[in-house]
UniProtKB/TrEMBL annotation:
One Pfam family linked to the record: Transketolase_N
Gene3D superfamilies from the UniProt entry: 3.40.50.970
PANTHER family (UniProt xref): TRANSKETOLASE, TRANSKETOLASE N-TERMINAL SECTION-RELATED
Name assigned to this protein: Transketolase
Organism whose genome encodes this protein: Saccharothrix algeriensis
Length: 229
């Protein structure tokens, strides 16, 4: 589990508000707050002193637009200093409008170009399995990203290979252009994934979904937010 830094979820809104000037993506980031907190506080086996540990869990933020919530959670968990949040998007700040794996401790991939995180995650999960490691790979995507063809290929391959160490969380704020017959979870289930849909603001339901048994199958958790978030 993540190393405690003395800050809790109640501190996240204040950390979030320290970053200004990203009005375009603020709500896209806010919709991920509960998901990110549950992952880093109760699910992922990763901490600031283990960012290079080959046996750490990997979290990949594919929904790279509006990483404000991600930065706030990383600050609360001790990966970055909270004071760094005050430099958000300044010319000399490590905290850009898309996260940079070279500049921000704990960030696994530089993201922002939507649709890339899931395929990268599949590759990481396969690599870890070949190395005999039990590390978990979790990718957070937005529902509109599922329009990208690369994700369809990743969904199919992960299901066919039975990547039990691979989890995708889809933050569903109903921004997808076409939607999916039967819902997003059905899109994954038809490819052999374990799938569930929960309230994206219900931390207890999120934790239960992330920790449900799914031997020999990848897991998708659809976190429903609604149009307002």
């Amino acid at each position: 589990m993540a190393v405690a830094s003395g800050l809790g979820f109640a501190d996240i809104p204040a950390l979030f508000r320290r970053m200004t000037g990203d009005e375009k993506h603020e709500w896209a980031a806010a919709s991920t707050l509960d998901v990110l907190w549950v992952l880093y506080d109760r699910v992922l086996d990763v901490s600031p002193d283990r960012v290079d540990d080959p046996d750490r869990d990997r979290f990949l933020l594919s929904k790279g637009h509006g990483p404000m919530a991600y930065y706030a959670v990383l600050a609360a968990k001790g990966f970055i200093e909270p004071s760094t949040l005050d430099t958000w998007t300044a010319w000399d700040s490590p905290l850009g409008q898309h996260p940079d794996r070279v500049l921000v401790p704990g960030v696994e991939i530089s993201s922002g170009s939507l649709g890339h995180g899931m395929p990268i995650g599949v590759g990481v999960a396969i690599g870890l399995r070949l190395q005999g490691r039990s590390s978990r790979v979790v990718v957070l995507v937005g529902d509109a990203e599922l329009d990208e063809g690369s994700n369809h290929e990743a969904i199919a391959l992960a299901g066919r290979m039975g990547l039990g160490n691979f989890t995708v969380v889809v933050v569903d704020n109903e921004s997808g252009t076409h939607g999916w017959p039967g819902g997003i979870a059905a899109r994954f289930a038809v490819e052999g994934w374990a799938a569930s849909t929960v309230d994206g603001r219900d931390q207890g339901a999120l934790h239960a979904a992330f920790t449900a048994e799914h031997p020999g199958r990848p897991l998708v958790v659809v976190a429903r937010i609604g149009e307002e978030g």
